[in-house]
Fold GDSL esterase/lipase.
Amino acid sequence: MTVKAIQWLLLGHLLVQVSMVCARVPAIIVFGDSTVDAGNNNQISTVLKSNFEPYGHNFYGGLATGRFSNGRLATDFLSEGFMIKPTIPAYLDPAYSISDFATGVCFASAGTGYDNATSDVLSVIPLWKELEYYKEYQKKLRRYLGNDKANEVLGEALYLISIGTNDFLENYFVFSRRRSQFSIEEYQNFLLGIAGNFIRELYQLGARKMVISGLPPMGCVPLERTTNIISGGVCNEKYNDVARSFNKKLQGLVEKLKKELVKFQLVLSDPYDIVSKIIRNPAFFGFENVAKACCGTGMFEMSYLCNKINPFTCSDPNKYVFWDAFHPTEKTNAIVADHVFKTDLVQFL
C-alpha cells in the first residue's frame, strides 16, 4: 500500500468515527505547546521557531507555517475529521482574522508548559497568557457573531489542551531550581494544580467539552536517546516512568473535575500507549526508523538546527516516526489523531 493510500485510509477512519458523533462541534479551540502550536511563536521574540524550510515540507504548498513538523499536526487532522476545516490557524498569525478563528483557533506556543518557569526558559508564551488571548478572542467573536451565536459556538466547541512535556524535559530535569524546591512527585502535583485551575477558568468562561492530553513516552524522543548514549542510546525509562505516573495523576484530576463541574464533558486523551506501540513495532505502522529523526542527523536537531542547508535530512519523512529530534512527523500525527477519535471522542456522543 502506498503512503498516500495509507493517509487516505487514516482519514477515512476519522470520518467514520465522526459519523458516530451526534453532538455538533462548530469549532476546535487549542491550547498548549509545540505539539499543537500552529505558528504563534512566529510572532514573538524567541529562538524557538520553525517557520523555515525544511519544516512544512509536506504541508500545503510546502509552506513552513511554524508548525514543528513536516506537515500537519494532530489537531489539524482532528479538525478535518470533524469536517470543519483542514487546518487550525494560529491566533497571532496576521494572515487570519476572526472570520477564520470562528471555526477553530490555536493559542499554543512551542516551548511552553504549565509552569511559568518553563515558558521563561526560551521566552515563549506562558499558559496564563494563552488564556488572556482566549478572553480577547471571546470578545472579538461576540462582536463578529453577536452574543447569542458566539455563546453557542463557545459552549459547543471542543477545547483541546496538549502540554506538559517541556515542564520536565526543558525545565525540571535540566535546571536545578525546581528540583531544589520539589521532589518529582511534588512537582507533578504542582503542575496538576495549575492544570486544574486552568480547566476551571475555561469552564467559567463557557467551555463545556474538553480533551486534555497526557504525556507521551518522552524518554523515547531522539534527543533523549542521544543524551542517553551511556546506556546505548535506548529510551530513558526514568523519564517514561514519570510520564506514566503523571498521566495516572492527570486521570484522577479529570475524574475529580467531572464531579465538581456540572454539565462538563472532560476527557483525558492518553497518547502514551499508542506512541509506545509505534515505537515498539514501527514496521506495523509503516515506519522504518524510530530511533532517529528525519531532519539532519536525526539525533539532536530541532528549530534552527533543523534547516534546509543541513545535508543529512532524509528524503522520505513518512518512513520516520519523528521529524526532528523532539517532534513527530505528519504521518505519526495522523495516526495519533485517528487513535484519539476512536478512543476518546466517543465520549462526546
Notes: The two ends are 33 Å apart (CA to CA). The chain is about 45% helix and 5% strand. Residues 237-260 form the longest helix (24 residues).
